[in-house]
Amino acid sequence: MLPRGRPRAMGAVVLLLLLLVVGFFLFGRDPEYGLGTTATLDEKPYGSRNRSASSSQLLLPSKCEVMLHVAIVCAGYNSSREIITLMKSLLFYRKNPLHLHLITDAIARNILETLFRTWMVPAVVVSFYDAEELKPLVSWIPNKHYSGLYGLMKLVLPSILPLSLARVIVLDTDVTFSSDIVELWALFDRFSGVILLWLDRLQQTGWEQMWKLTAKRELHTLTATSLADQDIFNAVLKEHPNLVHPLPCVWNVQLSDHTLAERCYLEAADLKVIHWNSPKKLRVKNKHAEFFRNLHLTFLGYDGKLLRRELFGCPNQFPPGAEQLQQALAQLDEEEPCFEFRQQQLTVHRVHITFLPHQPPPPRPYDVTLVAQLSMDRLQMLEALCRHWPGPMSLALYLTDAEAQQFLHFVETSPVLSARKDVAYHVVYQDGPLYPVNQLRNVALAQALTPYVFLSDIDFLPAYSLYDYLRASIEQLELGSRRKAALVVPAFETLHYRFSFPNSKAELLTLLDAGSLYTFRYHEWPQGHLSTDYSRWREAQAPYRVQWSADYEPYVVVPRDCPRYDPRFVGFGWNKVAHIIELDAQEYEFLVLPEAFSIHLPHAPSLDISRFRSSSTYRNCLQALKEEFHQDLSRRYGSAALKYLTALQQSRSRA
Amino acid sequence: MLPRGRPRAMGAVVLLLLLLVVGFFLFGRDPEYGLGTTATLDEKPYGSRNRSASSSQLLLPSKCEVMLHVAIVCAGYNSSREIITLMKSLLFYRKNPLHLHLITDAIARNILETLFRTWMVPAVVVSFYDAEELKPLVSWIPNKHYSGLYGLMKLVLPSILPLSLARVIVLDTDVTFSSDIVELWALFDRFSGVILLWLDRLQQTGWEQMWKLTAKRELHTLTATSLADQDIFNAVLKEHPNLVHPLPCVWNVQLSDHTLAERCYLEAADLKVIHWNSPKKLRVKNKHAEFFRNLHLTFLGYDGKLLRRELFGCPNQFPPGAEQLQQALAQLDEEEPCFEFRQQQLTVHRVHITFLPHQPPPPRPYDVTLVAQLSMDRLQMLEALCRHWPGPMSLALYLTDAEAQQFLHFVETSPVLSARKDVAYHVVYQDGPLYPVNQLRNVALAQALTPYVFLSDIDFLPAYSLYDYLRASIEQLELGSRRKAALVVPAFETLHYRFSFPNSKAELLTLLDAGSLYTFRYHEWPQGHLSTDYSRWREAQAPYRVQWSADYEPYVVVPRDCPRYDPRFVGFGWNKVAHIIELDAQEYEFLVLPEAFSIHLPHAPSLDISRFRSSSTYRNCLQALKEEFHQDLSRRYGSAALKYLTALQQSRSRA
Question: Alpha-carbon distance A455 to A368, whole Å?
């Protein structure tokens, strides 16, 4: 079966091939290059150097002297996810510096800018181009899907890429490399005479007029109702066959049930690029599907941080911030007892915001986003959370690359989760032994799009009415205009996996009296919620103000622009306490809401809490972090911070 | 810093190089080959085919016609783990069929036989050779470590490998490939004239006499107290320099703080093999350490099942069982609601038994091994379990390749766990969406080495005295000689993460009466332990017999040769119930032990139990599994199995 919109007669071995060839002649306009000499831009000449090659073998430009240019059109959430697997396979085999030219919509740009900034791959330059600018040039072509427009943009890439760019390889987002892209780049040289020829012709005819004419004729004579980019490429090149120099088929092995592709790879000794352009994707019943699938899965689950390696034998080509980071890491003392903590604090995690399609909430003045973070072992909380919180959520997930794929599968197979488009999932990729809890919270918080946020934890289920109640309370208390306040949502806990969630405060109090519910950490850590004053809450009819006290860590609703969590707290302990101190130091009022509640469900202690309990080093390091935090507080708030230090010293003398 | 036992003067670029060269001339004894023609063994000729190569380029034998031979000496638990990373890197890049010649001790053989059998990589043949046979040939050489003997065995490999083997590449276990091994194999051709020469010389002098003489002289004249294999290689080749043709250094880039290696890879365009022979391993401060480390980490965490792909363009070369398995999988209907269950049941997981060093328990007639299985999210149970159970354990861990490395780190950094050598950890590698609970239990059960096993679950902590008490009870009840019995260990649960574990039955009963403890799943699933008869247990002074009843699933002590768990039960539900039915059907008596108990600690519901609760398909599939199980029971036990079916039908009509 061939993908929709591509004429069957053209067979399966066309798309990428044409794209590459197009990239070839459209952008081969550096006149020096055209005259048979070498390119003189950001590449050094390589045509003349080192090994002699037999006629059947390609000249491979060696190592790092040559910068390769790759252009990709990428729009929307799913393509932004796909492109990462392509990038991993490309980066795994490449040995040259790379300049990516990404033509993106606003969504993809937002995602990919964050991703590449945090990925910090040496010797990769990324330039973004706004796909909006290209839309008018192709929007006159009838197209079946909105997304088809992005495909058509490949026809007009020259009008957006810099004129100085002599050559570029154009790729679809759904290809996987199984070899070094430099081998593909080297094909440019092989056909340089041909390019010269084409340039002449292009000057005479003009590519733009050519494809437009063809497209219009196709629309008229064939009474086509829509045209995809491949349709136009195919039609133009059918009329001008001398424009095409077919690439060896190994450079575009298309995965489909069709047998043309198979003929290619049975004869070839080697594959270079696999193109996942069958709508059946991984499930395709190709004889060699297993080979293809495993290669694809290899890079799908590949730990992207391993690609942060420097290019072998090249001078350092650090991405922004990487050099300072490396120096800071190098200065750490491996023998120091808290080395692990220091290292974890400095770790820059790759971040993939809005990993799944997402509809941002409409702008509403009192809207609240639930903010939380989780790892794989709390995935089963998501469905219940969706039932309890009908509003927007911003969740950071701490996952490996392989787990991110499992998570994708989990959401796709859950009717509850796949129905919710107002939940934004942000993947923070795992790196290091300590859980970077506050870094995760900050990622989720930064991506909340409503004016208020409910800072919760993943193992809490809010009262069914909480979302509505919070919005009403924010409006009533006029938080937006005059007060700087943190609304406290009192926290409870159950020890039973299955229990009837109370539908009202009255029901909750009954359960509390019956001993089926407790106030949160009543047994282990009562000071965490002492200030909330549960006995006052029982009777309260209106919000009441409470004062900060040592180790207070309530769940609060605050404006989105509230202080960030202190990322130095990694692993277990004190991560929320420090944030509440920060709120108090910045003079947020703590107002307890009389009808609000949230209930913690039981789970096993995390690995970090177990380490905290069993290791005195761990506890000492946490103590050191606390002290450094207080030093910073004193620096920033002066004598106003004295009360926190006093409280810390008192708690230490008690311990 | 150079590794122990290697003369500093020889620098860092020797070991693998020499090994390869040794492989070269020692085994290049096919006379045909020596006369300059091509090898005629299990390889087809490749010297004459396809592409012409320039003088500086190597002829690469194409694809699958050429079988490559690799020999590795591997002994003990740690080398058996190391070799897997080597194998993954080798298999990732290779395009040829491979014959592995593994010279192993009993430990490595046990581990690697299981691993390769379950790995099922196409076009890989594995032959094992007993290292014991080689020991007498080298044991006269004084050596610093017992393990050094295995290094010396490389000197005498010819005496154990088949005479028909013309050429073999000899590798250390601590190398990582970064290219196709066929390129290394191709070097044989390049030096064929040289090999001919060497063969002549070897005929005259004899390699065996040569190295023995040298070794003896070294021992005398240099008053050496010990010799490692490298010392001897170095000495022989110093005396006979014309025996050596140095390999290009890219074929043995040694990772060390030494700068000789750096000189190599700064000049080279490409690396082929990285040799992890520095004792500092991953922490080495080499300028390019990051590149090396990431390549190594790539394969350390690489999902080995992705290497199950067939060789590209080669005729099928199925490992044993793989073809039938593929057929069975192909026959499954993807649209069937229980497809996921069917697929999971057929999945063959890679199994790495005794992943960490282990001391088997001394043979004792009444000894009991605790058998359980877990995944990453229960790791924090291990330390507590070790404190509660001082006896041998056999634990199956369901992990990804990357998690297995985290697990290794976890054990190494835990004083409690690293002190215990009587706990055997068996890694079963993850594959598929449903937890293969009974397959895991069977792996752990099969590896128990004592006459009795305590079949427990990872989230239970046994009474401190249980290990001693069970051994005494087995002896007293004379289980070994006459009775076929399953000793029942009554199960309780706490809902609190932290609680004081009762030191006696009396203390337990007090907690039970106080409502701090419950009988296990008292609220959710009382029938699971109904037959245990807790009120009788309160008063019991002696073991008492109980009868099977529907859904009974106690934790039991049975002889090691008890029936296996039914692997069809994947995911949540009925996995222990079916096993207890099997015991009852085989007429095991259930004897409840009056002083035995075990307590379940709280944890969040697993993903599988959540899916069971939320998905009617999941529940229906479990029901279908139950029915198939009963059909099998009837076939095997006839009318005796009727009572189980009746119970099932009754429970269904109640539901």
Answer: 10
The kind and range of the H/E element at B129 are strand B124-130
Asked whether the beta carbons of A370 and A391 are under 8 A apart, the reply is yes
Residue B618, pLDDT > 90, answer no
Give A559→chain B minimum CA distance, Å.
32
Assess B266–A contact: CB distance below 8 Å, yes or no: yes
C-beta of residue A19 within 8 angstroms of C-beta of residue A154: yes
Taking the C-alpha atoms of residue B345 and residue A479, their distance in angstroms, rounded to an integer, is: 57
Q: State ipTM.
A: 0.71
Contact by Cβ (8 Å): A245, A194: yes
Collapsing DSSP states into helix, strand and coil, what is residue B485? Answer: strand
**Predicted TM-score (pTM) of this structure:** 0.79
Local confidence band at A193 (pLDDT 50, 70, 90 cut-offs): very low
What distance in Å separates residue B432's CA from the closest CA in chain A?
A: 10
Nearest-CA distance from A133 to chain B in Å? 40
Q: Is B124 left (phi over 0), alpha (psi -120 to 50) or beta?
A: beta
Q: Which ranges of A332-483 would DSSP assign to H, the alpha helix?
A: 339-346, 381-388, 401-412, 415-419, 437-446, 466-476
For residue A476, the tally of other CB atoms under 10 A from its CB is: 11
Distance CA A458, CA A435 (A): 15
Residue A393's DSSP bridge partners are A370, A423
pLDDT at A508 over 80: yes
Distance CA B458, CA A511 (A): 31
Short-list A309, A256, A231, CA closest to A5 = A231
Distance CA A256, CA A258 (A): 5
DSSP secondary structure letter of residue A181: T
Amino acid at A393: M
Question: Residues of B with CB below 8 A from A51's CB?
Answer: 54, 56-57
Give the sign of the dihedral formed by CA A520, CA A525, CA A528, CA A529: positive
The tokens of A237 are what? 């090149």
Range in B86-95, B475-484, B566-575 the model is least confident about:
B475-484
Verify whether the Cβ–Cβ distance A288 to B497 is below 8 Å. no
**What residues are paired with B518 via a beta bridge?**
B493
Structure confidence at residue A334 (pLDDT): 85
pLDDT at B450 over 80: yes
Task: Collapse the DSSP code of A592 into the 3-class scheme (helix H, G, I; strand E, B; otherwise coil) and give the result.
Answer: strand
Q: Nearest-CA neighbor of B411 among B160, B78, B46?
A: B78
Instruction: Measure the CA–CA gap between A125 and A128, rounded to whole angstroms.
Output: 10
Q: Which residues of B55-87 are buried (b: 16+ CB within 10 A; e: fewer)?
A: eeeebbbbbbebbbbbbbbbbbbebbbbbbbbb
Of A51, A291, A376, the CB nearest to B312: A291
What torsion, rounded to 10 degrees, do the Cα atoms B220, B221, B223, B226 define?
-60
Contact flag A498-B52 (C-beta cutoff 8 Å): no
Residue B123 backbone zone (phi > 0: left; psi -120 to 50: alpha; other: beta): left
Of the candidates A227, A202, A224, the one whose C-alpha atom is nearest the C-alpha of residue A152 is: A227
The separation between the first and the last C-alpha atoms of chain B, rounded to the nearest angstrom, is: 70
Distance CA B11, CA B339 (A): 59
Q: Are strands B598-600 and B460-462 parallel, antiparallel or unpaired?
A: antiparallel
Would you give the distance in Å from CA B451 to the centre of its chain? 23
Nearest to B465 by CA among B519, B502, B423, B490: B502
**Which tokens go with B388?**
């509660």
Record: contact A495-B498, CB cut-off 8 A: no
Share of chain A above pLDDT 90, in %: 46
The answer on pLDDT for B134 being more than 60 is yes
Q: By the CB < 8 Å criterion, does A187 face chain B? A: no
Substitution target in A95, A298, A331 with the highest count of B β-carbons within 10 Å is A298
Show the DSSP H helices in A226-317 as ranges. 229-239, 260-267, 289-300
